[in-house]
Amino acid sequence: MINGIINVYKEKGYTSHDVVAKLRGILKQKKIGHTGTLDPDARGVLPVCLGNGTKLCDILTDKSKTYRAVLLLGKVTDTQDITGTVLAEKPVTASREEIINTILSFQGTYAQIPPMYSALKVDGKRLYELAREGKEIERQARNVEIHSITVESFNGETNEAVIVVDCSKGTYIRTLCHDIGEKLLCGGCMKELVRIRAGEFEIVKSLKLDEIEAKMRAGVLEEHIIQVPDMFPDYAKVYVKKEFEKKLYNGNSLSISQLEQEMAGLCDMTDKVRVYGGENNFTGIYEYCPAEQIIKPYKMFL
C-alpha cells in the first residue's frame, strides 16, 4: 500500500470524489481520501491522501488556499457561477476604478453566507440537495478571511475581471464573486475557477490522473509521493529508547527520560514533535508538555 500525499491536478468535469475513485483503480488500493472539494467545473490543486496519510485529511483541509477566478459582472445566477440559471442581468455602470476598488475592499475578514448550492449539511441533508428540490433555507453567515486579493486584469467590454484570492478554509469564491457584484449594484457570478495552491501544494507540481497512471506503470510514482513526516518539517525529530518502543507502539505518553539521550534537550522545540521508533520508523506526532516533562500522542500514523 502507498502511504503519503500526492498533489493531483483535478481537471474540469471531475468531482473530487471522481478523482478518488479513479485513483483507487490506478493505485489498486481503497484507503484514499481528498482534502477538500472542488466544484466539477473548477480545476487545479487537489491534495489526495493515501494509506495512513488519510489521517492528515482534516489537517490539510484547514490550510489556506489560493485561487485564480474570472468574475463576470452584470449577471446573477442561482448557483453563483456561470453554470446556474440566470436570475437577473443588469448593466454595469461603475467605472473601472470603482470596480477594482470594490474588489480590493473585500480583503480582510468578512461575513459570508454559504451558497445553497454547496455541500454543507443542514439536518443531515446537503444544501445542494435542498436547492435541487427548489427549497431555500436560511443560512448563518460565517466569518472568512481574505488574506489578499489582487486584480490581474479587467475587460470593460466583457465586464470580466481576473482575480487572485488567497483565503482561509471555508471561503466560497463563487459567493465572493456574487458579493462583489452585489456591492457594485450590478450583480456578479463566477465564470472560471482554478485553485493554484492548497497549503504547501502548488499547481506547478501537480499531476493529472493520466500522468499518475503513466508514472505508476513506469514504477516511478513513489518519487512524487510526499511522505507523512515530511509534512511537518518544522517539528523536532525525536527517537524513543529501544526498551520503551512497545509503549510507543501502544500509543502511550512518554516521559522525556524515555527518549534517546541526545534528543532529550527539548527546551527549544515546538509544541509538537515527530516521534520515531527503531530503524527510523516514524510513528506519529506528539505534543510536548513541558510542565509534566512528557510528550503525549496527537496523531498516530502506525
Automatic annotation (TrEMBL):
Keyword line: Isomerase, tRNA processing
GO biological process: mRNA pseudouridine synthesis; tRNA pseudouridine synthesis
SUPFAM superfamilies per the UniProt record, alphabetical: Pseudouridine synthase
InterPro entries: PsdUridine_synth_cat_dom_sf, PsdUridine_synth_N, tRNA_psdUridine_synth_TruB, TruB_C
Active-site residues (renumbered): 39
Family classification: Belongs to the pseudouridine synthase TruB family. Type 1 subfamily.
Name the UniProt record assigns to this protein: tRNA pseudouridine synthase B
Native species: Anaerocolumna xylanovorans DSM 12503
Gene name for this UniProt entry: truB
